[in-house]
Design a protein that fits this description.
It is a single chain. The chain has three domains: 187 residues, Rossmann fold, CATH 3.40.50; 129 residues, Jelly Rolls (Sandwich), CATH 2.60.120; 106 residues, Immunoglobulin-like (Sandwich). 11% of the residues lie in helices and 37% in strands. It has four helices and 26 strands. Strands 1, 2, 3, 4 and 5 form a five-stranded mixed β-sheet that branches. Strands 18, 19, 20, 23 and 25 form a five-stranded mixed β-sheet that branches. Helix 2 packs parallel to helix 4 and helix 3 packs across helix 4. The longest helix is centred in the first third of the chain and has 18 residues. The model has no long low-confidence stretch (mean pLDDT 93).
Length: 438
């Protein structure tokens, strides 16, 4: 298990030496490697090495919402303004997942008893590393791919549906990930979430409203507002290139309470919690029940001059506990049956090669497969690291064919689900195959 809370200063395509070392550790040594995405901010293409490695499980940062310790309270969940965004320079989607990385308490170096509060994707990475270690504890044979898939399938999906270059596969749900690895289910209760797409016209106003009840008070309102557009150069040094970029359009955001009073505002890139101005962030603890308004307006000053545009809002607020249905329990099935029969001096050997996969089509090692022959006798085999095993029996030359039927698969990965059995080359139905004398 390798956890890398470190990064370079520039974006990468994954071909640098550190990223290549990460890939080698995963592919040749079987390591689980988790790496920080970087703190390059909200512009696309800011993922740094080693988070840019193809095999790295790359972690972005969010603010948490559940801490009861004031100095660790971050009024999330919202995407951290400093968290690097994808794609990588060779156009791969990164990060893979996001985890709490704002106002995180950690042991202070050089002290035996003191703590420090820090923010960064380096603070988010250990959360994912810890969960990954628990997954390997539950499933010692799991590879980086297995761990990545489990974390992705159990994360709370944020942003547009599916994996994206802002949130990856979503917000880490450690409870759900470990439960799924153990063959069970369950999820962490999060505040209610909406992903909203909207547009504001030039020199106009866009209002998004939502209503809170008295029972929702005390749960943070958190809005990540991501602006569609492109960076423009605001400090051009001529032949030396551009020294400073700003996002266009430049939109500002405000949160108003049910009485119309301003609760908080975001005026990136000039305000706090800002990077290049592509993200506006609003967060507050509501104290009044009623209808709240998120107001987005174009910046009227230079260089934006009131230019509007489209944007999305990832909005969290009370109540807590409206998580999506729990993920299905992991299962295994037959992914292929092949006739590998061979002639013998005094007859032939009927033999079937069997492939076992899990619900993500990942090969399963250590699965015990049981099948039966027409006379009722049974045979078993155990799959190797490639998910394969073979079962056979000797037959006389006069026996021209024989049917073999899989009856049971036992695996620590999950329950056998025969309805998922299949055969990609069509020489069986995944459960039953006719073996023919060569």
């Amino acid at each position: 298990m390798i956890s890398l809370s470190l990064g370079s200063d520039v974006p990468s395509d994954g071909l640098d030496a550190l990223s290549q070392a990460v890939d080698a550790a995963v592919v040749t040594k079987g390591k689980i490697v988790v790496a920080a995405a970087g703190n390059g901010g909200d512009l696309p293409g800011t993922i740094t090495s080693p988070g840019s490695a193809v095999q790295a499980l790359t972690v972005g940062a969010t603010a948490d919402w559940s801490s009861t310790v004031p100095q660790y309270g971050a009024q999330g969940p919202f995407l951290a303004w400093f968290s690097s965004r994808g794609p990588t320079l060779d156009n791969r989607v990164k990060p893979d997942i996001v985890a709490p990385g704002v106002n995180i308490g950690a042991a202070l170096a050089g002290s035996a008893s003191d703590y420090v509060t820090e923010s960064g994707t380096s603070m988010a990475t250990p959360y994912v590393s810890g969960v990954a270690a628990l997954l390997r504890q539950k499933q010692p044979a799991w590879t980086q791919t297995n761990v990545r898939n489990d974390l992705a399938n159990t994360a709370l999906d944020m942003g547009p549906a599916g994996k994206d270059n802002e949130w990856g596969s979503g917000l880490l749900d450690g409870y759900a990930a470990v439960a799924a690895a153990a063959g069970g289910s369950g999820q962490t209760p999060f505040p209610a979430h909406q992903h909203i797409s909207a547009t504001v016209a030039d020199s106009s106003v866009s209002n998004t409203t939502f209503t809170l009840t008295a029972g929702d008070l005390g749960v943070p309102i958190a809005a990540t507002i991501t602006l569609n557009g492109a960076p423009i150069c605001t400090l051009d040094l001529g032949p030396l290139g551009c020294l400073l970029y700003e996002w266009s359009p430049d939109l500002d955001a405000q949160l108003f309470d049910p009485n119309g009073f301003l609760v908080t505002e975001s005026i990136c890139a000039a305000g706090n919690e800002c990077s290049a101005g592509r993200q506006e962030t609003l967060h507050a603890i509501p104290t009044l029940a009623g209808t709240y308004t998120i107001r987005v307006t174009p910046y009227a000053g230079d260089p934006n001059l009131g230019k509007g545009g489209s944007f999305s809002i990832d909005l969290f607020h009370g109540p807590v506990g409206t998580s999506p249905p729990p993920p299905p329990s992991p299962t295994v099935h037959i992914g292929d049956l092949d006739d590998t029969s061979a002639l013998l001096a005094a007859g032939w050997r009927a033999q079937v090669r069997i492939l076992v996969e899990d619900h993500d089509q990942t090969v399963v090692a250590g699965a015990v497969v049981t099948g039966k022959w027409p006379n009722g006798t049974t045979s078993t085999c155990t799959t190797n690291a490639s998910g394969l095993c073979r079962i056979g029996r000797k037959l006389a030359k006069s026996k021209l064919s024989i049917v073999f039927t899989v009856t049971k698969v036992v695996s620590a990965v999950g329950a056998y689900k025969p309805s998922d059995n299949h055969d990609p080359d069509g020489d069986s139905n995944g459960t039953k195959i006719t073996l023919i004398e060569p």
